[in-house]
């Protein structure tokens, strides 16, 4: 069974004005579809066929650039759509908020650390919030489509929140103003989804 482009959980214009409709259409329909197609082509006929994307990334041969770039792209964007919502924003509650306070001192300190990772990632890449098996949290930046599930990448936890800082993610609306895009992202974070991923992966 080949990987399929996941459906967006909301309309293309639902995240506007924070993320505009045309960016969502191209980003999901063209970029994510492209990673999906190329991932399928890269694993076709190999022993990776039929494995979950998490299994593929956790056991990845980092020299396998086709699977590294496109498997990473498939996974990262699948996470990205799910952790945003038109009803998002604000701050998390419950166990996730307690873990944020424990790991970063405060939500404000977490926000600053995550935003700095996103703003300072040189060139194309991602910022991630990750959970370790002991329930502690980490923030890291990763280049290109790498993510911390891959061997030796980033902080080594499981990503529960990801922000795409490739120019294709924001350039139509924000041009070179990546910091404004990073700031706007906090208005659409789906903390319920991030909390569920935290609970399932600690
Ligand atoms: Mn992207």
Q: How would you portray this structure in words?
A:
The chain is mainly α and 202 residues long. It has a single domain (20-202), classed as 3-Layer(bab) Sandwich (minor pseudopilin epsh fold). Helix content is 47%, strand content 10%. The protein has eight helices and three strands, in the order H-H-H-H-H-E-E-E-H-H-H. Strands 2-1-3 form a three-stranded antiparallel sheet. A hairpin with a 5-residue loop joins strand 1 (125-131) and strand 2. Helix 1 (21-43) packs antiparallel against helix 3 (65-82). The protein starts with 20 loop residues before the first helix and ends with a helix. The relative contact order is 0.16. The mean pLDDT is 97. Residues 27, 31, 77, 164, 166, 168-169 line the site of manganese (III) ion (MN3).
Key attributes of the depicted protein:
globular; minor pseudopilin epsh fold; binds manganese (III) ion; mainly alpha; 8 helices; 202 residues; three-stranded antiparallel sheet
């Amino acid at each position: 069974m080949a990987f399929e482009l996941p459906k967006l959980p909301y309309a293309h214009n639902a995240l506007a004005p924070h993320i505009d409709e045309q960016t969502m259409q191209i980003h999901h329909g063209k970029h994510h579809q492209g990673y999906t197609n190329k991932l399928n082509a890269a694993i076709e006929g190999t022993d990776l066929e039929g494995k979950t994307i998490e299994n593929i990334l956790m056991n990845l041969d980092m020299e396998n650039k086709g699977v590294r770039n496109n498997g990473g792209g498939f996974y990262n964007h699948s996470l990205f759509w799910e952790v945003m919502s038109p009803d998002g924003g604000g701050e998390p509650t419950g166990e996730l908020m307690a873990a944020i306070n424990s790991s970063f001192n405060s939500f404000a300190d977490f926000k600053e650390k995550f935003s700095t990772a996103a703003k300072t990632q040189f060139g194309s890449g991602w910022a991630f919030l990750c959970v370790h098996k002991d329930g502690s949290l980490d923030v890291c930046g990763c280049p290109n489509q790498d993510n911390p599930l891959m061997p030796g990448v980033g902080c080594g936890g499981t990503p529960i929140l990801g922000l795409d800082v490739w120019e294709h993610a924001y350039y139509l609306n924000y041009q070179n103003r990546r910091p404004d895009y990073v700031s706007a992202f906090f208005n659409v974070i789906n903390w319920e989804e991030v909390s569920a991923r935290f609970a399932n992966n600690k």
